[in-house]
Design goal:
- By secondary structure, the protein is an alpha+beta fold.
- It folds into three domains: 195 residues, no CATH class; 164 residues, no CATH class; 123 residues, no CATH class.
- Helices cover 50% and strands 9% of the residues.
- It contains 23 helices and 13 strands.
- The chain has a six-stranded mixed β-sheet with strand order 1-11-3-5-2-4.
- Helix 13 packs across helix 14, helix 15 runs parallel beside helix 17 and helix 18 crosses helix 23.
- The protein is flat and about 75 Å long.
- The protein starts with a strand and ends in a 5-residue tail after the last helix.
- The relative contact order is 0.07.
Length: 528
């Protein structure tokens, strides 16, 4: 194992020859804007992180693909890219101006402003302005001064020869040198080919503990595919696509953690060695089936019991892992089991049970669920972690997703309706509506934190009519049925619903929401 710092030029030259992507790893997903920001960081010499690669053995038969999807035999590759696909692909994309993904041509036209040193994606507003040059053209130019003369920058920008030579040339040459010179490097952590899976897992864990976040689930996917060649990836992608079709965009890593939890009754991904090294293909098929069944059951409970039909409202998807594991151990749920299930989902989401030491807490919770088949101990763990479980004004404030989740669930329990259409609110097509319009509050000098506060958010089923965007609530809400307002904890008080009393409104509605939320939590079994 070693850490090297090759130049970006050498890294690009090695991409086609040396690096392969695990076939199970997610595709290149960076937008052109993200690519732009990455190149801007290189230009400013900001840290861009370390690449992690693993020397591969031909006999491993790990399914791989090339960064630009051109065909290469596995024996021609030297390293499997574990962390860094997005950055490597971005370098190649900008250097060439294009690449191919699944036989589709992906292009980028990244421009650089020689006067302001700003990077932008080409658009009609700047496309033909002389100060904006195509970065790919700059990188591949044989001579920067020749390019400057070709573009006639001195005359078109009305610059002195001194300005051209001292500033414009230096800026463009800097871009070229990032890709073709020796001075710009990216560190690469190389794991040698003689390191076994167990040791690699330990390396990942240690890196994670030190703050270097590695997607070891992607490596696990590649290794699992060896047990089910050609089938596991296809089945996984089909399952994820089906979930997305019903509104649930679930991260692959969450599904893999569920699978690992069910397979080994634990949460630490280092346990994947137990799957890869010892499990039979038949057993893996069975575990995968149980995982899918439990995931679908979990989502069905959330949809039918509390009206959550989309992943967009979840503060964290990690809360799904212990819930899925729990369902995999139960043949059926009693009414009490279902209430505890919902209560744990809401409280662990609200209080951030799985932020911080994620694997430690998941491990603790899964071990308890395996032994006890209930959530009582988990409530105690959570209370010890945060001090209390009921909601108060000290924490129910601001713009965080956890406050919106509890607000939505409690209001839906009150049969809250869209104010303008009359439909029950639902996460499948819900919109967050600012009761006091953002534009009015912004003009009055309120901060974004105050404007987007959860107490200023109502839930509708479609965007409010633009005609009300600049009206004060006392005006446009006068036409809304008072019962509909009450169901979303809004009282029609003309004085309070004026912009000058915004903070009074926030305080009153926050109190009403907290009261409603705690009442609902108590109905699920939370005791004072």
């Amino acid at each position: 194992m070693s850490i090297e710092s090759p130049s970006i030029r050498d890294i690009i030259n090695s991409i086609k020859r040396d690096f392969a992507i695990p076939d199970m790893q997610r595709e290149f997903i960076w937008s052109n804007i993200q690519v732009r920001d990455f190149i801007d960081s290189l230009y400013k010499k900001h840290p861009v992180g370390m690449l992690l690669v693993w020397a591969i053995n031909a006999e491993d038969n790990i399914p791989v693909r090339h960064i630009d999807d051109s065909f290469r035999n596995l024996n021609e590759f030297r390293y499997l890219v574990i962390d860094g696909q997005q950055r490597l692909t971005s370098l190649l994309l900008v250097k060439q101006g294009y690449l191919f993904k699944k036989d589709k041509r992906r292009e980028i036209k990244l421009l650089f402003n020689v006067l302001t040193e700003e990077f932008q994606i080409e658009n009609p507003k700047i496309k033909n302005k002389p100060e904006w040059l195509n970065v790919t053209e700059v990188i591949n130019a044989e001579n920067i001064m020749t390019l400057i003369r070709k573009k006639d920058l001195q005359n078109r920008l009305k610059l002195t020869q001194e300005k051209i030579e001292e500033e414009i040339f230096a800026r463009l040459n800097k871009i070229k040198n990032i890709f073709t010179g020796e001075g710009y490097t990216i560190p690469i952590f190389k794991i040698s080919r003689d390191v076994d899976y167990n040791e690699v897992t330990d390396i990942f864990v240690k890196l994670n503990e030190k703050g270097t976040k590695i997607r070891i689930t992607e490596l696990l996917l590649a290794l699992l595919s060896l047990k089910l060649p050609g089938k596991f990836k296809e089945n996984l992608n089909k399952f994820l696509a089906n979930l997305e079709g019903r509104g649930w965009i679930i991260d692959t890593s969450v599904i893999i953690r569920c699978l690992v939890a069910i397979a080994v009754k634990g949460a630490r991904l280092r346990y994947f060695r137990k799957i890869v090294d010892s499990i039979t293909e038949e057993s893996l098929h069975n575990i995968w089936r149980r995982t899918q069944d439990a995931v679908l059951h979990c989502l069905q409970i959330l949809e039918q019991n509390i009206g959550i039909r989309s992943s967009r409202i979840l503060p964290s998807q990690m809360v799904l892992v212990p819930l899925v594991f729990y369902l995999s151990t139960k043949e059926r749920l009693s009414e009490r089991d279902a209430r505890e299930f919902i209560l744990w989902f809401l409280l662990s989401s609200y209080w951030g049970r799985y932020t911080g030491p994620v694997e430690t807490r998941l491990e603790e919770d899964i071990k308890y669920l395996d032994q006890n088949k209930d959530f009582q101990g988990l409530f105690k763990y959570l209370k010890n972690q945060v001090g209390r479980l009921f909601v108060s004004k000290d924490d129910f404030i601001g713009t965080k997703q956890n406050t919106k989740l509890l607000s939505y669930v409690a209001l839906r329990n009150k049969k809250a309706e869209d104010w303008f259409k009359g439909h029950l609110i639902t996460t499948s097509d819900y919109e967050e509506h600012h009761i006091f319009p953002r534009s009015l509050l912004f003009n009055e000098g309120y901060t974004y934190q105050e404007i987007d506060d959860v107490a200023n958010i109502a839930f509708l089923t479609q965007k409010a009519n633009r005609a009300i965007l600049n009206k004060e609530p006392f005006d446009y809400l006068s036409k809304v049925d008072r019962r509909k307002l009450t169901k979303q904890c809004v009282s029609y008080d003309k004085n309070i619903l004026k912009i000058k009393n915004y903070k009074i409104f926030l305080n009153q509605r926050r109190n009403s929401l907290i009261k409603e939320i705690n009442r609902y939590l108590m109905s699920l079994g939370l005791k004072k």
